[in-house]
Amino acid sequence: MTLRTLLLSVLMTAITSPLWAMGVMVHDARVQLSPIEGRPAAAYFMLMNHGKQADKLLSVDVDGADRAELHESGAKDGVMKMQKMESVAIGVDEGVSFAPGGKHVMIFGLKGIKPGEVVTLTLHFEKHGDMVVDALAAAPGAEMGKMGGHNHH
What we know:
This protein is mainly beta. The protein has a single domain (23-141), classed as PCu(A)C copper chaperone (Immunoglobulin-like), CATH 2.60.40. It has one helix and eleven strands. The chain starts with a helix and ends with a strand.
């Protein structure tokens, strides 16, 4: 291998593999399908930041869906409420859980997905850029549990 080829290889690796790649990780990504056709589905996952800087999840795109929004559910005055979030902060060495009854990605207009299929999510971060994650689709009412490994980009 010539020095030029070696340098070109190192440069291409640096361009395609950012130094922060291992900083943000997603574990157990899954999409809970709706029991009623035409109603929204929801994406759940565990977001971890092992990087050296805090960040924000700004939005999520879902292949095959009309749109997706960051939401949070919680009780207020004894009544469960859901509200849209503009972003989700994640500090250094912190985790944020997206789970039923809490933070989640509300997915509108998801078409043609069956339980057991893979749904591709693209998470958009303020500092870390975009991360593509494969999520397993689950049948309505299915036990969510741990449904897979982790993704990081």
